[in-house]
UniProtKB/TrEMBL annotation:
Residues 856-869 have a biased composition (Basic and acidic residues). The keyword Protease applies. The lineage of its organism: Eukaryota, Fungi, Dikarya, Basidiomycota, Agaricomycotina. It comes from Lentinula edodes. Its EC number is 3.4.19.12. GO terms for biological process: proteolysis. This is ubiquitinyl hydrolase 1.
Amino acid sequence: MRKGYPLQWQHVLTSLACELLHLQRARRLLEFQRSQSPHYIPEVDAIPTSFVDAKKNPEWVLIQVESHFTLRPLQHTVLNEMIYPSSSQNTVFQLNMGEGKSSVIAPLAVATMADQRTLVRLVVLKPLARQMFHLLAARLTGLCGRRIFYLPFSRSIDMGPTQIENVRSLLQECVDVGGILIGQPEHILSFRLLTVERLIKNDRTGPTLLELQKWLSQCSRDILDESDEILHSKYQLIYTMGKQQPLEDHPDRWTTIQQVFSLVSRHLKRLKDRFPMDVEVLDNEPGSFPSLRLLKPAPGATLVEWLTDDIMTGRLENIHFGFLESKDQEAVRKFVACFDVDNENVAIVKRCFESSGKWGSVLLLRGFLGQGLLAYVLMKRRWRVDYGLDLKRSLLAVPYRAKDVPSLNAEFGHPDIALLLTCLSYYYQGLNKDQLLAAFQLLLNSDNTAAEYETWIVGLDLPAELRQETGINLEDPTQLTEILLPRFHQAKRVIDFYLSAVVFPKAAKEFPTKLSTSAWDLAEKSEKLKTGFSGTNDNRYLLPTTMQQQDIPGQESTSARVLSYLQQPENGPCISPDSLALKYVSLQVLLSHVASLPTPVRVLFDVGAQVLEVNQEVAKMWLEIDSQAQAAVYFDDKDEVSVLTRDGSVEPFIFSSFRNRLGECVVYLDDAHTRGTDLKFPRQARALVTLGEKVTKDRLVQACMRLRQLGHGQSVLFFAPLEIARTIRADADKSDGDTIEVIDILRWAMLRTCEDIEHHIPHWVHQGVDFHERNLAWTAAKESGSPPDLAQLSSAWLRPEARTLEQLYLPHTAQTAQTSSSTVAKAHEIPEIQARLDLLGIMNVGDASVDEEQEREVAQEVEQERQLERPPPSKALHHKVRDEVRSLVRTGNFNSSSFAFLPLFDAVPLAVQKRLRQGVSPWSKELWATRDFNITIKNNSSKEHMRPVNWLLSTRPTLTSPMNIIILSPYEVQVLLPEIRKSTNVSLHIYSPRIRREMQTFEDLKFFCIPSLESTWSIPDTIVISQLNLFSGQLYFANYDVYRNLCAFLGMGVHFEGRAGPVMDTDGFSSTLIEMDDNGGLFRMNNLEI
């Protein structure tokens, strides 16, 4: 009817449509009156479109006739405001849930705006995109003949000149045919970021994309559905720029985290005993990290105190502070454990560590403990609700937008938050079969398999054959699946190994710069206005300043009306574990309880994300509990409404016979779908609404109002877990065990709303300042007749992405404080932002980086397969037993100046020599090796090709010379063995370094000797044997004294009871000289004899 029909025919058809509209309304009135439906009064109040109005908007009548509804006066008022805002500004409106925002107003508005001159974009959230597509298709593609367009976009799309022209043609076609484009925020912002990226890179397609952006600014008219969520300050989309680089201070960056979590597990039982009501600990399998959640700040503060004690006493492997003076130790303790640190303590810590390799670890510990990152992830983030794994796109943990619903592209903006949550995700979820197999393969191919495997099996219940790595057979699928997987998949040491070897080296990367957009870009001022609507207005204080909240005349009491519905007597009670005399309520117990109520509950709105089971599992369990229900309705993992019938079949809700029989079904809406979902529940439906930590008034009301007749026959009751119930009672000044009323829940939700607004103010300010700078450059680029100023565009849009550990965690000095406050200073210079801060009484704006989440799109990199150029094959040196070695066996006379013998540590790097006094070697003069043992290939004297140490030849000590130990090659032993057997001057000893804990030690050199040793024979000095063990690669010490002596010899810090220890540097080594006596067996360090 838009064109192609004679005017007379248009009037005839319009008149017919008006008559049909009156007829349908009369039939509905009769039916509503007969069934005493609550829809009767609203239908009476509805006024059918008159012929005069129908001639102006004929499609309004067609849509009403085809969809069998009558436009109500309120809807008519809102519709006109949506199309022609009286404020003449970008505006969002509030309309009560159930008043037809999405089902009535949106289709009529977009049909009116799509006048073949305007590109109409209906912007919706991803979870609601499919539902909105089906709704518009049902409303507009019939009698109206409108076409619905959908154009998803991301950075991964190859946008060359041809593709750009195709997009332009498709958008122009949408305009020409009066179509409606369904868009998502990320698609619109990604297209803009691509344009900026191409311009900055001076790509040839940049100007073409910019022209398309100009056209969009002139022609597009946007309507935002659920505008409060779309324009929330927590949302931003970024493009990473530059070459990906590893995180600073890797791998200590993540191994320190793993070691801190090991210390945490030591204290969990004590922490639970001290705070039984504020700590949730669920023990998993042996060797695993327990599931942990802190419910209050007090346990977090205590845990930080205990962890600081552990770290200062040397229980953290990556760094030790025991060698510092007491004053320096106290400064380090305050620096690590306290948020506020004075400049004097900062100066002391910087003096001790800034020039050392452990400065990064010190800063990292401060971030975990002093700045509260560890307590934050354990208290504010819930696994599978706020974060978890999505291995389809990332090895790291990613934000979840709802329970078990990973965000499509979002990543955590803070690198260490991402690392902490990644560790917890793998600890809780465990390794799957392929991951465990990869871990074992890496283990068996490592250089230190036995020692590493020993750490894996600590605390595990294993059969005897698996106590050693030799019992592992990865070719046996039965052993892998039935034995290894159940025992190792949640073992913390195994997971730490996998994370350090696979996940973090590959995924723990950052980019130097980024391009970013936010909700402010969606609300920017353009030639055509933007309008939006939502059922709540709690987010009005966090709207971009370019978008205003406007109350429709007569609808100022919308929020209060919903609250009055909730306070009616049929709502409630609030179920909590203590009301059921339980400490914990499982899903099965909860469903069984509500099914046994006098009025059974068959609807569950999990807005509090208390149900961690998969949606289909919830549906199946509920059908087993409620024997009267014939089917279960739920959302599947593709955001489609599905129906599970009693025979186990699953069918789409839109085609199911239960679509109009919800009274026979149980219905479960997870927290991702408690907003915007529109199902027609029976008039007497009663729903259970869960409460959770992040439930605000907005989210609570949105969930409850899925019952469109709430307050008119439909009702709700609530479930609060123990910690939420305690908070509700505390906010209401009630005691434990007191009844929780609906008014108490509303008070609690409003307080959480205030906290949420205050929490997101820093994000709002930072995004507003950033948008203000970017928008100036973006507007200049669009309005420039010539190529845009790329320098100005780059300066405004490119932002640093990677931050150093000092930038993240070093306490603010005067200089860093000035830098950090620059954003706040800029905010005060923007009148609109300053006015909003004044309205809210905000004086200080904090750091927004800790809980920052970013929708991130990474450029597709060309895969490169690196080919290693290996060294040419080496030629083995022919064995040779030199005469001096034969003479030694026969006579026992050792000639240290002979070419046939080399000092054992002859290849020690020169860097070590710098620590020594000139002309003095710390290494024992009693340890030697033959040239045949030491040099294995031709023309190469390096130590890359070394033989294992297995054969030692010892001489007899005399008054003028000590016992010398010479390492022989196997060839020399084979040739000289007959002569050694007859010799009375030397002895041949079998030796092997101890590389496994259970391995027998050979360091006393008495295991097997040829010829047998005399009774008067004594082993060499301890320091000589220690150096031999060090050279041969021994991993275990015979006792603590041997360990202490070797540490002192190497200049490493060690505790000496009853004596003052040597002065140590912050890296644990002594900077003083090592002195040895003439015999090489006694050494002194700072006058300390060992």
